[in-house]
Specification:
heterodimer, A: 372 residues, Rieske Iron-sulfur Protein, Naphthalene 1,2-dioxygenase Alpha Subunit, Chain A, domain 1, globular, B: 335 residues, Elongation Factor Tu (Ef-tu), domain 3, Rossmann fold, Ubiquitin-like (UB roll), 3 domains, 6-stranded antiparallel barrel, 5-stranded parallel beta sheet, 7 helices, 18% helix, disordered N terminus, binds FE2/S2 (inorganic) cluster, binds fe (ii) ion
Chain lengths: 372, 335
């Protein structure tokens, strides 16, 4: 039997809070050319834009016989038409047209999920729409800032989203998994500091006076063409509820203050990661690599994107294999190492949110009764 | 639909009461079980064994530990609002869980929220949701005078330029037609306030031919033009016939005598239960929302789950007469 039970902070497959923002796609993926179908937290959604350019997310199943609305077409200023028997819905999900009758059944509607476009992403809130608050969208401002340049990609990971979060919260794996690009033994030798509050967890690691691994040596030379010698390296991993991790990374010429605030003699990047659970065993992993030097160079943007893509392909292979091993070894538990501290705080925050929602749902029966 | 909903009564304790405006009390209640609410919901309060009143919920705690309701003291009150205005912290009363007849939907391109007087209690939290979502909305609050209008300060603070006040005694009477002139086909319009105001909006809405589903207000179903009365039911080509009593639907009567009819929603929405009226002595009291007005006026078909037949003598309010001599009859034609 496959253990997919979503409980406990060391669960192999974690449940996901629903009253939370998740990315449903890149800004350019949601358009008026094609209705995009994406499943987020077990909810199939049909995503498109209105004539005015506002993104919309409706349940991807018609009220009538559940035909996917994503197979239909856009109608009117903000609506879609079901491909099967032609019912039309507006962007609030209300049926506005029933071809075979003069009136419209007032109960005919599909869910319209709260949607916000921010930081180059389309964010959706799969839970109770009345609780949605755009102020809770994670801070990824580097994605849309004049002071940063970069680009990213999407990985369709065949693994529970929590395994991706675990992966990003502990970067000692770079030494083994990414030995040819960013890995080095100092990663495991250096100490980490873990802090947290209600919605964030931060893991900080500094490495002083080390050799720059190949990826960072190239970046240094993009900024300082004659660079030789040792560097100080930093990794500051910040998790934001429910599934965004932005990592402040970089190296600076050794001893120039890169670890204490003066990064002028170094190069700085931000690895932006946000992971949307699709279901218990699949996730969509959106990432971008942003930098704050040589902003004019499209060559560097492309090289960095492709370089990180290569690194993340190694992660993807591991995550897929790990998920398969979880399925194949149902009697085996997860155990923890001290390097997992960051990941364990993330799991605890998420578990708290999931449990709070369960209690709420359990006692919410009266109100939903009344919705008839 | 509150119809058919089972009400769960529970005891609640008054946490606080304060004046939110002239004649409007804001009362915070805590239930013995959590009271989960959402914008547009109301709770029923048992004032006396045979007196229940509904009050809109202004807001509630996310964990259900309290709800805040707004109550206007009505000059014509038969005791309900007077009772509520006399509540003191620590008093107990019996309430239902919040009930939802007026849900807000997210995702519309534009919103207009119109509150008249104490109607702001229902609209207040809707505006808050739309603000948090960054939706495009306008909040219009109509009142007699500023002191009679609740929550003015917080509304100003939260909604700034999106809030428009229209205060009667400042000579600023709302121009309903002008307002609707700016509403387009994809605007959702939510209103709660005096019947006269809502009627004016409804008329202007129909005149502008705006989509009816986008005009939202608390509805209590289509209750028909006639009081329910008993009538005789026959079936073409069959010996079976019966009398449909005032508290029974045609569909129930058919099931009782063993005639198999198709149906789904049983509330006049889907049109699956439509049957042809073969012969009619009386008038059909259409209580569905499936047929258009034009279709209803021809009296050739009806939704048997909700619609009835009335003898012409009995219009609503006149009181049902029960004698067989005036009893209406209906013959249904099943294919
Ligand atoms: S399934 Fe969509 S109209 Fe029938
Ligand atoms: S059963 Fe749906 S209208 Fe009668
Ligand atoms: Fe990695």
């Amino acid at each position: 039997m496959t253990d997919l039970s979503p409980s406990g902070a060391t669960a192999k497959n974690m449940a996901y809070p629903l009253n939370a923002w998740y990315v449903a796609g890149w800004d350019h993926e949601v358009n008026r050319k094609k209705i995009l179908s994406r499943k987020i937290a077990d909810r199939p959604m049909a995503l498109y834009r209105t004539e005015e350019g506002r993104p919309v997310a409706l349940t991807d199943a018609c009220w009538h016989r559940l035909a996917p609305l994503s197979m239909g077409s856009l109608v009117g200023p903000d609506g879609v038409q079901c491909p099967y028997h032609g019912l039309q819905y507006n962007s609030a999900g209300r049926c506005t047209f029933m071809p075979a009758q003069k009136t419209i059944n007032p109960s005919a509607m599909v869910n319209s999920f709260p949607v916000v476009e921010r930081h180059r992403f389309i964010w959706v809130w799969p839970g109770d729409p009345m609780l949605a608050d755009a102020a809770l969208i994670p801070d990824m401002h580097q994605m849309g800032s004049d002071e940063w340049a970069g680009d990213g990609k999407t990985i369709d990971v065949r693994a529970n989203y929590q395994l991706v979060l675990d992966n990003l919260m502990d970067l000692t794996h770079e030494e083994f998994l990414h030995s040819s690009s960013i890995g080095q033994k100092e990663l495991s030798e250096s100490d980490i500091e873990v802090t947290h509050d209600d919605r964030t967890v931060t893991v900080t690691r500094f490495m002083e006076n080390i050799d720059a691994p190949p990826f960072w040596l190239k970046n240094m030379r993009d900024k300082f063409p004659d660079f030789e010698g040792k560097v100080d390296r930093w990794q500051i991993i910040e998790f934001q509820m429910p599934s965004t991790i932005c990592i402040d990374v970089g190296v600076a010429k050794a001893g120039t203050g890169g670890l204490t605030g003066d990064r002028s003699q170094g190069v700085n990047g931000y690895v932006m990661n946000t992971i949307s659970p699709v279901d218990q065993a699949n996730a969509m992993y959106y990432w971008a690599f942003m930098r704050n030097y040589r902003l004019e160079s499209q060559r560097i943007t492309t090289e960095l994107r492709d370089g990180v893509h290569g690194v993340f392909a190694e992660d993807e292979e591991m995550l897929t294999a790990q998920q398969q091993a979880i399925v194949d070894n149902p009697d085996h538990e997860f155990y923890n190492l001290n390097i997992d501290a960051g990941g364990m705080w993330v799991r605890r925050l998420i578990q708290r949110a999931v449990e709070a929602e369960r209690t709420m749902l359990a006692s919410d029966a009266d109100l939903s009764d009344a919705k008839g | 639909m509150s119809q058919g909903t089972q009400l769960h009564w529970q005891r609640a304790v008054v946490k606080s009461r304060r004046a939110a405006a002239d004649e409007i009390a804001e009362i915070v209640l805590a239930g013995e079980r959590p009271l989960f609410t959402e914008p547009g919901a109301h709770i029923d309060v048992r004032i006396a064994p045979d007196m229940v009143r509904s009050y809109s919920v202004v807001e509630g705690a996310v964990d259900g530990s309290w709800v805040k309701i707004g109550v206007r003291r009505s000059p014509t009150s038969r005791g309900g609002s007077r009772f509520m205005h006399a509540l003191e912290p620590g008093d107990h009363l019996e309430v239902t869980s919040p009930l939802q007849n007026f849900p807000l939907r997210v995702g519309a391109p534009r919103y207009v929220l119109l509150a008249g007087g104490v109607g702001i209690t229902a609209i207040h939290s809707m505006a808050r949701v739309l603000k948090r979502l960054g939706a495009d909305y306008q909040l219009i609050f109509v009142g007699r005078s500023r002191p009679a209008m609740a929550f003015l300060d917080e509304l100003h603070r939260e909604h700034g330029p999106r809030l428009r006040l229209s205060v009667d005694d400042e000579g600023d009477v709302l121009d309903v037609k002008g307002l609707l002139g700016q509403v387009d086909h994809s605007t959702e319009f939510y209103m709660c306030g005096p019947i006269r105001l809502m009627d004016a909006v409804r008329r202007a809405w129909i005149e502008r031919e705006l989509p009816m589903p986008n005009l939202r207000y608390e509805t209590f179903g289509n209750s028909g033009w006639f009081d329910p009365e008993e009538f005789e039911l026959r079936i073409r080509g069959s010996e079976r016939h019966t009398v449909v009593s005032p508290d029974e639907s045609i569909l129930e009567a058919l099931e009782r005598v063993g005639v198999e009819a198709m149906y789904d929603c049983r509330k006049g929405e889907c049109g699956l239960c439509v049957v042809k009226a073969e012969q009619l002595n009386g008038v059909i009291d259409h209580r569905d929302v499936f047929f258009s007005e034009a279709e209803k006026s021809t009296d050739t078909k009806l939704c048997v789950c909700v619609s009835r037949v009335a003898s012409c003598a009995n219009s609503a309010g006149a009181g049902a007469e029960d004698s067989a001599s005036t009893r209406a009859t209906l013959t249904l034609d099943f294919p």
